[in-house]
Amino acid sequence: MRGHGRATPYLFLAPYLVLFTVFVLGPAVFGLWMSLHDWDFQLPGKPFVGLQNYKDLFDPLSATAEPFWHGMRATGIFTIASVPFLVAVPLGLAVLLNRHFPGRTFFRAVYFAPYVLGVAVIGLMFRYILDTTFGILNAFLGIFGVPEIGWTTEQPYAFVALVAVTVWWTTGFNAIIYLAGLQDIPAEQYEAAELDGANGWQKFRNVTLPGLRPVTVFIVTITLLASANMFGQALLITQGGPGDTTTTALMVITDVGFSQFRMGQAAAMSYLLALCLAVVALITFGLMRERKS
Amino acid sequence: MNTINRRLVLGGIGALGAAGILAGCGEGSAGKPGAAPATGDGGAKGYEGPNVELDFWNGFTGGDGPFMRKLVDQFNTEHPNVKVKMTVMQWSDYYTKLPTAVSSGRGPAVAIMHVDSLATNAARNVIEPLDDVAKALELKQEDFADVVWKAGEYDGKRYGIPLDVHPLGFFYNKTLMTQAGLDPAKPPATADEYAAALDALKGKGIQGHWATPFTFTGVLSVQALLWQYGGQLFNEDSSKTVWHEEPGVKALTWFSDLVKNGHSPKNVAQDADNIAVMNGKNAFVWNGIWNINTFKEKKGLEWGVAPLPNIGGTKAAWAGSHQFCLPKLKTPDQNKSTAARVFVNYVSQKSLEWAKGGQVPARKQVRESADFKALTDQAALATQIDDLHFPPPVPGIGDALAELNKAVNEAVLQKTDPAKALADAAARADKILEANRKKYGA
Fold this sequence. Notes:
The structure holds 2 protein chains of 2 kinds.
Chain A: H1 7-34, H2 52-57, H3 65-97, H4 104-116, H5 119-130, H6 136-143, H7 157-183, H8 187-195, H9 200-211, H10 213-228, H11 232-238, H12 249-259, H13 263-288
Chain B: H1 3-11, H2 18-23, E1 52-58, H3 65-78, E2 82-88, H4 91-103, E3 110-114, H5 115-123, H6 131-136, H7 146-151, E4 153-154, E5 157-158, E6 161-162, E7 164-173, H8 174-179, H9 191-203, H10 215-228, H11 246-260, H12 272-278, E8 284-288, H13 291-297, E9 303-306, E10 317-320, E11 322-325, H14 334-349, H15 351-355, E12 360-361, H16 364-367, H17 370-373, H18 376-382, E13 388-389, H19 397-412, H20 418-440
Parallel strand pairs in B: 1-2, 1-3, 10-13
Antiparallel strand pairs in B: 3-11, 4-5, 6-11, 7-8, 7-9, 7-10, 7-12
Keywords (chain B): Signal, Sugar transport, Transport
InterPro entries (chain B): SBP, TAT_signal
Family (chain B): Belongs to the bacterial solute-binding protein 1 family.
């Protein structure tokens, strides 16, 4: 290899580096530049405003602060409420589907199937299911004497509905990753545990969970980020309501950037959101890293 | 246009996520759209030049799409040297895509825009003034209701050629009215008649007017009521919000009291009010004229439509309007400009065909024709023409109106007292109005 010179590794990297620069680094830097301006790509003047867009987000009297922090709050609530389910439910499902039983492949497909649907499809579908007066869910609950619940118009039901829909929709994806992880745990470890007299729960706790640790770190991190980026479900099912309680940060950013054409402010919001997510991701990593005793 | 599409405009289902914000707008820094071409006769004398192809963008994804396509096909057959290529997309995508396309030089030659978006797009250099077309079409203020005419103007210039007007109307279920002992041939027209009708329905266990907390069509109903009570959304120069003053409070109180007084269930979900009329559970709904074709398709539904009842004392109704506009071309092309004007001219004169899709033609002459009057449902709503209101032609006005949507949502869901909800929303909207004045230099 030495004969090929120093350029070799960089040549191998080049294709990815080009893509990365054009589609990630470039836009990111450009966005940072934008966030320092009062930016509307259609208007001739794009005055430089320094950190004003960021300052505005911390000034309760500005037009952008309130919607943004309401959005952050909605995002936070949704993330905290959904991530535990999105991590635990697929894990349970994966353990079950990892057993040998007839029809296993069929069930794997069944649980993964919703993930294939587009957000518009599930949004429309659940708007019918969750409709207060005509929805099948309230009709079903009515059989047991439960009064009508405003799944899309009342809190906390709106969040319950959004979390449930999201779990139903995306469980399959995480379950597949867990399944792959489960198949990487050597069978010998289970055999050894059995020889030591471990029961099912002990095997799960002492073999399965530690074996899945790297996979779990990965799943928790991507699920956190995915939940924090929730957009379509709230837009289509609750339309950000009741009030603006389920208007997520991303919905606010989209509205400010693409409906109000305040790209500078929207970019500033994006960076603040990105910063928060980076911090959260780092903390998760820190908490879940392998502890060497 | 069906309700879902209209609603998505407001929801703004745009690009998914922050990545879009970061990546989406790279091209635009160069965006200095071409200067307005010389315009000549505004398309009145036809187009004699070499073959041109015109892109025509709109958001007619609903039942109105086929009607527009028919007009385009007809135009193409009659004009062999012009080929109009119609592209239909969701309104929400459309309003984000159009400015980007224009600034990168890939915008269409002709487009449709809602009246409340004209000023914003004019201020943002997305569309061209077209006073010459108005002149060539001999369009005069007298041909239209004042508001329709004025709503197409911004900064002293005309930017939109009105194609239609789509007002809110009063739809009613005749079967339920008969059940409650009401005369289905005489829908209630005043506040007292309306209250009596609701009570009669309630007496038969029917919740007569479901109040929806959503923009379609709860907010539109509240706006109509606000004007009926003699109010305005904004002050004279649109620098301040005034919807939280007495008329607005009365309007929102009347509407949210429908729930309190048992005329509406709580927590009405999106479109449930309209579905309930079709299912025979709800008697009255105030919905857009586009609802005519929806109701027509429902078999066995006995329904009627009338102008909005006058609850507040002054006749008034919310309305929208589709307007033709000419997006700026990056490289001015005289042939395209002329041909585009010919096309606008052509369709504008055929607006009777368009009316069949569930619209009121903007032109008086078409509106007063016997052919239009034969479309009895549309004609019934057309009688409101002089009582219609549009948002003022101020750039970014929709950003401020979005706050009203929240207020109505909270009040109708019985979460916040109407006066407080309106005042809070007004305070937020005032900040947006101020920021917009700065942004658009008004």
